[in-house]
Amino acid sequence: MQINLSELFVCEGKVMQYEIPIEMDEFVTASGKYPLTEKKPLQLMITHSKNRNLKICGNLDLHMTIPCDRCLEPVDNHLQIAFERDVDANATEEERIEALDEQPYMNGYNLDVDLLVYGELVVNMPMKVLCRNDCKGICNRCGANLNYETCACDVTELDPRMSVIRDIFNQSGIVSSHSSESSRRKQKKKKK
Fold this sequence. Notes:
The chain is an alpha+beta fold.
């Protein structure tokens, strides 16, 4: 959605408020697609502060479904984002790039709300998402969700970066006796 802001440039100090429905249904990035399950309208307040400078203040309130980083189960995340952006309408595109202040959401007098929202979601995306704090994740061998089931995979596998040390253990018989002991324990659990 585009908003024409030419009315704001009529006089300094002019303020306009907008309530804009969020049109996107999913947030798409290189890492995946994340459905937006609940969306409240975007609240925007745009002020022409002085000399064709705009101050854009906004509030986003939405729910996004993101997979758990350990077990990949979908997790509902409530995101409340308050943001503030300053736009210098006098600056040319080259000057903005040089100042590392690119604003793809501004094109002349038009504000692209979808690009503004997308940019805020990129910056405010949670770094780590867990379905619960004690999530056990999935088995790296069989893919079983360890929160709901146990698997019979051998968990004594050593880190491949430690292969030199593993060779030393194999020569002395420590690893083979340890892994056979863990196999016996698993067999006993299965019989119970």
